[in-house]
Design brief:
- This is Polyisoprenoid diphosphate/phosphate phosphohydrolase PLPP6.
- It is found in: Endoplasmic reticulum membrane; Nucleus inner membrane.
- GO terms for molecular function: sphingosine-1-phosphate phosphatase activity.
- Its EC number is 3.6.1.68.
- The chain has helices spanning about 20-40, 55-65, 65-80, 85-110, 135-150, 155-175, 180-200, 210-215.
- The chain is built from 8 helices and no strands.
- The termini are far apart.
- It has a single domain (about 20-215), classed as Vanadium-containing Chloroperoxidase, domain 1 (Up-down Bundle).
- The chain is mostly helical.
- Helices cover about 60% and strands about 0% of the residues.
Amino acid sequence: SSGAAAAPLPEEDCMKLNPSFAGIALSSLLAIDLWASKRLGVCAGEGSAWGSARPLMKVIEVSGHGIPWLLGTFYGLCQSDSSAAREVLLNLLFALLLDLVMVAVVKGLVKRPRPTHNKMDMFVTISVDKYSFPSGHATRAALVCRFVLRHLVLAVPLRVLVVLWALIVSISRVMLGRHNMTDVLFGLLLGYALYGVVEHCWLSPATAPALFALW
């Protein structure tokens, strides 16, 4: 009837006449992020600007994937005959597992979709990998980089190569169209912070005797 109150429109259909400054800034940042990420996705497909470099970018992608790192660390742990080396490798394994869990949790909470120009041909994915934020490769690269620089004695050229590897892995995520720039930046920050957690919870024969008894 004409006297009945009109049903309210869904919130997403209501025009906000007085958007907050924070809302405008966030929307602008996301728009710039999407635009820049698409422009930088020069290896997102064979027909992209740098499509010929796509196979190389996918090799770099595999070098930062969690499965090779987990398998390699576990193999090294099983083959090691040094107690000091086993302690370092066990903590690296702990760091990699912590990284996987934290990235999965954040992706599940944020649920940001992958860029529209992404080709879903990634190496060994799980269901949560349909989400984009944060970049697990960037998180892992930052975490492994800090771990290696802290616990391995390397010459200066090798230390530089480790840092370059972490940066190249992170940049390749945008170039392949897998992630937006903010996914990678947050991933680097998260990985950097996770290393602090690993150091704080460092596993040793004194703090985790049961784990070391297995080896």
